[in-house]
């Protein structure tokens, strides 16, 4: 009885201390005189964040209320939402060594395959060093013919659509195109998604991209109780291991998880491709992202250490990441570009004139990168429609001072991108709500355009994506004029998950 009483008292004391500690965390921003909406006990601001359909609009609304630097809590973890570009320049560029990680979902910890997004500072540096050459101008030029093959397939489809003389959703075709490009260039397999509409890769990828992993129950729990993350990871691992065993014992009752879970299926396919490449070295080397990574994996560095090589798991993780990071973002950008073409005929004419100036020249890497108006056009599309907002975060690795504010280790910094992209002080004197490509001819603040992130940890695939987008648009504009479909505005309803994307881009084409 006495022991039970002692145990009970200990338990109650522990719970009380835990709750008092939680409560005291909520004074973090108050003692630093940083404004922000009031947090809810235990959840912080998650209840609002999880219930809002449009996270970035919610941030803009709070920015209007609380100013250019304000505080939120993810559970009890402080999150600075910032639209002060000088502050962000300190974090993303000048003090990068103290802010060199992204905030990553707990689900990444489930996988052995650490990749660029999930890697901590030192492993990230080594991976980025090994993978950067895959995206050099020389390698991109060599990969351009692979992209060209995929665009050719799209053009055949557009020819057919144009002959039918009906409006159609080009966004769907762009998704097939960008998946094809990633398969050709990162997976090293020559798919034809435009015609092979039931392709397994496409259907499984579509499922993966529909899932918002940040809102899965285990993810939410790990954000609310960060101390429980490794416990949750172990729990999830043991569930997977148990399921594997049960499947081996009774395959008819327990399905194979690899077949059931698209993420696991995709990773197993990547391994198959790697195996083929590494076992069959007799054929001519293909120039693609996978081969560059395999070469990096085989290279021992001057200091003779293996930790600078890429491991098999790292290659697998990064191929998977390229697919996740490069498929939906690029097709969505193409969708936005086409929306602008369909609604701004004068701008389309200027782009067509620039493409026509190239006469019958091949629309390859060199030709499209020299198109100046195309460059301004794309920057303006990125400014008005940044597709990937929530990924741009930095975690503070060591307590420091930024623009007079003490930022504690473990806090997260996130830019409010829409507020920055529509700020007339940064983008005036023309109205930032107007689509004006020429505004990019004026030099702007280096942190004013954040669609691809900024600093050493910005998007590694930016040049690859821009090449793909420019080549695709140039091919389309050479042969067609884009016209709005009757249901263009109806389809242009935006949804926000991993990427902010429209439902559809309904257009018609006019043969030139
Ligand atoms: C229009 C297309 C794209 C957009 C808008 C985009 C946007 C972004 C953004 C905002 C980030 C975070 C940057 C930061 O935190 O500063 C990022 C990171 C990344 N992106 Fe992209 N991306 C695109 C295409 C691609 C493509 C095609 C690939 C690969 C083939 C790719 C691979 C990556 C990788 C690996 C990272 C993580 C970089 C690191 O942590 O070192 N992205 N991207």
UniProtKB/TrEMBL annotation:
A Pfam family per the record: p450
Record-given protein name: Cytochrome P450
Species, as recorded: Adineta steineri
An annotated Gene Ontology molecular function: heme binding
InterPro entries: Cyt_P450, Cyt_P450_CS, Cyt_P450_E_grp-I, Cyt_P450_sf, Cytochrome_P450_3A
Family to which the UniProt record says this protein belongs: Belongs to the cytochrome P450 family.
PANTHER family from the UniProt entry: CYTOCHROME P450 FAMILY 3, FATTY-ACID PEROXYGENASE
Highest taxon in the source lineage: Eukaryota
Function summary: Cytochromes P450 are a group of heme-thiolate monooxygenases. They oxidize a variety of structurally unrelated compounds, including steroids, fatty acids, and xenobiotics.
Annotated binding of heme, by residue: 459
Record keywords: Heme, Iron, Metal-binding, Monooxygenase, Oxidoreductase
């Amino acid at each position: 009885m006495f022991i039970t009483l002692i145990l009970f008292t200990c338990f109650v004391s522990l719970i009380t201390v835990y709750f008092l500690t939680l409560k005291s965390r909520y004074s973090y921003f108050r003692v630093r005189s940083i404004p922000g909406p009031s947090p809810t006990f235990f959840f912080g601001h998650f209840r609002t964040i999880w219930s809002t359909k449009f996270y970035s609009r919610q941030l803009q609304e709070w920015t209007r209320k609380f100013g250019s630097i304000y505080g939120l809590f993810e559970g009890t973890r402080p999150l600075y939402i910032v639209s002060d570009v000088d502050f962000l320049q300190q974090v993303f560029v000048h003090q990068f060594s103290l802010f060199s990680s992204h905030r990553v979902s707990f689900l990444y910890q489930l996988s052995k395959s650490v990749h660029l997004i999930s890697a901590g500072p030192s492993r990230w540096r080594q991976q980025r060093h090994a993978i950067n050459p895959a995206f050099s101008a020389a390698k991109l030029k060599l990969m351009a013919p692979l992209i060209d093959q995929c665009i050719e397939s799209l053009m055949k489809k557009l020819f057919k659509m144009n002959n039918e003389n009906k409006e159609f959703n080009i966004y769907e075709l762009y998704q097939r195109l960008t998946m094809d490009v990633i398969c050709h260039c990162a997976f090293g397999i020559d798919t034809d998604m435009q015609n092979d509409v039931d392709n397994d890769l496409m259907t499984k990828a579509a499922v993966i991209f529909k899932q918002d992993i940040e809102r899965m129950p285990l993810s939410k729990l790990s954000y609310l109780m960060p101390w429980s993350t490794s416990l949750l990871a172990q729990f999830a691992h043991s569930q997977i291991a148990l399921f594997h065993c049960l499947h081996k014992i009774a395959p008819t009752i327990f399905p194979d998880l690899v077949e059931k879970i698209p993420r696991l299926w995709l990773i197993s396919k990547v391994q198959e491709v790697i195996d083929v490449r590494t076992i069959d070295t007799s054929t001519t080397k293909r120039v693609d992202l996978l081969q560059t990574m395999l070469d990096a994996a085989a290279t021992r560095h001057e200091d003779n250490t293996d930790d600078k090589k890429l491991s098999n798991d790292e290659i697998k993780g990064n191929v998977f990441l390229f697919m996740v990071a490069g498929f939906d973002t690029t097709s969505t950008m193409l969708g936005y570009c086409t929306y602008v073409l369909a609604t701004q005929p004068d701008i389309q004419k200027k782009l067509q004139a620039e493409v026509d100036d190239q006469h019958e020249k091949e629309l390859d890497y060199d030709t499209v990168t020299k198109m100046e108006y195309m460059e301004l056009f794309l920057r303006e599309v990125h400014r008005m429609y940044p597709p990937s907002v929530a990924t741009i975060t930095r975690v503070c690795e060591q307590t420091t001072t930024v623009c007079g504010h003490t930022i504690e280790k473990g806090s997260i910094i996130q830019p409010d991108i829409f507020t920055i992209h529509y700020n007339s002080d940064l983008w005036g004197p023309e109205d930032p709500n107007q689509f004006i490509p020429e505004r990019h001819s004026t030099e702007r603040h280096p942190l004013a355009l954040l669609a691809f992130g900024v600093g050493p940890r910005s998007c590694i695939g930016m040049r690859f994506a821009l090449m793909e987008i420019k080549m695709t648009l140039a091919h389309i504009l050479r042969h067609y004029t884009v016209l709005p479909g009757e249901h263009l505005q109806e389809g242009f309803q935006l949804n926000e998950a991993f990427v902010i994307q429209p439902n559809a881009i309904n257009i018609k084409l006019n043969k030139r």
